[in-house]
Amino acid sequence: MSAKLLDGKSLAAQIKEKLKREVDQLRASTGQVPRLVNIMLGNDHGSCAYANSQKRVAEQIGIQYELVTLPHNISQQDLIDHIKRFNRDEHIHGIMIHKPVPTHIQYRVVANYVDITKDLEGINVANIGKLIVQETKLIPCTPAAVMEHLHSTRVPLRGKEVVIVGHSEIVGKPLNLLLLEEYATVTVCHIATSEAGKLMEHVRRADVLVVAVGKPALIKGEWIKQGAIVIDVGINQVGDKIVGDVEFEVAQKKASYITPVPGGVGPVTVVMLMRNGIEAFKLQTKSKVKV
Ligand code: NDP
């Protein structure tokens, strides 16, 4: 048996079509389209490549996207002042702060200055809190992309044993909440799980496995339960190749569905950012929007 590939590019293309239609409707009913800004500190080549892909996807959907580059050595207060200015600007509907930020900037502090209705990545603590009670549509993009992949399989999550490896604020923790909403039984593993020598035993019983760590081949293919769904979020450069956190070749023989790396979660994540941009726009133009 060989798993079906969960092709992120084709899933992203389908969602982009839907979002494009929604933007067309918004343009018709409000005379405006969402305008998003990505604040980048310094001009790192790798980060620019990611921002360029966001810009390309925004253009495909009909969203305005602007990369605002500020000096790498900007003070935290000056950065906060820029964010406050963007918060007040009614022509800007979504704001994100490009990561990584320089070490003198406390990301958690500045992220909380992004207006909660313009919070493109859903990382303001107020939105994270609202996620618990399902009161926000501004959902962190990578967990949202994982959910899109899972829904695309049409396998019900209710009652399934789901194991997440990695408990970061942007992936594992919010994903845990999204899965609980679907009545999956969720186990979240992290470094201490590995230290306790228990990672394999958790992975082995996963009907659905999501790995977001950033360590190539952390998850051995032979650990995968027969028929499991495997979502590999990890992105690792190994020589001249990009690989995930799961030993793909062996895992593919045991899983029912598996995401490739690259080309799995990544392309859908960028589209989720745009979906948040549309939701943010709707929050701010609520009274005018008819769709
Ligand atoms: P973080 O470094 O913030 O989190 C990594 C997590 O893995 C932490 O919870 C850490 O635990 C845990 N961890 C580390 N080592 C082990 C181990 N040996 N066993 C079990 N758990 C371990 O990373 P991110 O969440 O930001 O990203 C994770 C990966 O996903 C990276 O490769 C990143 O590039 C990729 N990524 C991909 C995206 C996409 O769109 N495809 C988007 C975002 C990220 P602890 O904190 O306790 O040490």
In short:
The protein is α/β, with parallel strands linked by helices. The protein contains 11 helices and 11 strands.
Describe the structure.
The chain has 291 residues and is α/β, with parallel strands linked by helices. The chain has two domains: 27-130, Rossmann fold (3-Layer(aba) Sandwich); 141-266, Rossmann fold (3-Layer(aba) Sandwich), CATH 3.40.50. It has eleven helices and eleven strands. A six-stranded parallel β-sheet has the order 1-11-8-7-5-6, with helices on both faces. Helix 1 (8-30) runs parallel beside helix 11 (265-284). It is globular and about 50 Å long.
Number of helices: 11
What would you give as the CATH superfamily of the largest domain?
NAD(P)-binding Rossmann-like Domain
Structural class: alpha/beta
Secondary-structure element order, N to C: EHEHEHEHHHEHEHHEEEEHEH
**Ends distance:** 45 Å
What ligand species are in this complex? NADPH dihydro-nicotinamide-adenine-dinucleotide phosphate
How many structural domains in the coordinates? 2
What labels would you give this structure?
single chain; 291 residues; alpha/beta; Rossmann fold; 2 domains; 6-stranded parallel beta sheet; 3-stranded parallel beta sheet; 11 helices; 44% helix; globular; binds NADPH dihydro-nicotinamide-adenine-dinucleotide phosphate
